[in-house]
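Sequence design from tokenized structure. All designs in this work follow the same two-part layout: the structure record, then the generated sequence. An example of the structure record is given first.
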């Protein structure tokens, strides 16, 4: 099961025959952040930070089925965090707008 705040990648963006054309759907290969979970019996859905459809179906926001997503690899998340921290440290040390001559 995913956790709120976890980054996931969409692996299946196939629309079902009864898909609502007014909704915004995740795209295969795109990375999203889990905003909330919807747990129902043996299945669960995810709400995404990057997609908010609002209360369009019976005054509730529809969730996306969790099988359409996979968690991002732990190492990939760590690399992104290290890169972000490195950028913040360089900016703090050299000031905003610093351009590295080594890249």
């Amino acid at each position: 099961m995913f956790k709120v705040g976890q980054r996931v990648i969409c692996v299946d963006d196939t629309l079902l025959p009864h898909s609502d054309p007014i909704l915004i759907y995740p795209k295969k290969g795109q990375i999203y952040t889990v905003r909330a979970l919807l747990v129902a019996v043996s299945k669960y859905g995810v709400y995404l930070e990057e997609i908010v459809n609002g209360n369009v179906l019976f005054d509730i926001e529809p969730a996306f089925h969790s099988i359409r997503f996979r968690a991002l690899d732990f190492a990939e998340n760590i690399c992104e965090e290290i890169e972000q921290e490195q950028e913040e440290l360089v900016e703090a040390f050299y000031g905003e707008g610093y351009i590295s001559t080594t890249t």
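The longest helix spans residues 74-94. We note this feature because it recurs in several other targets discussed in the main text.
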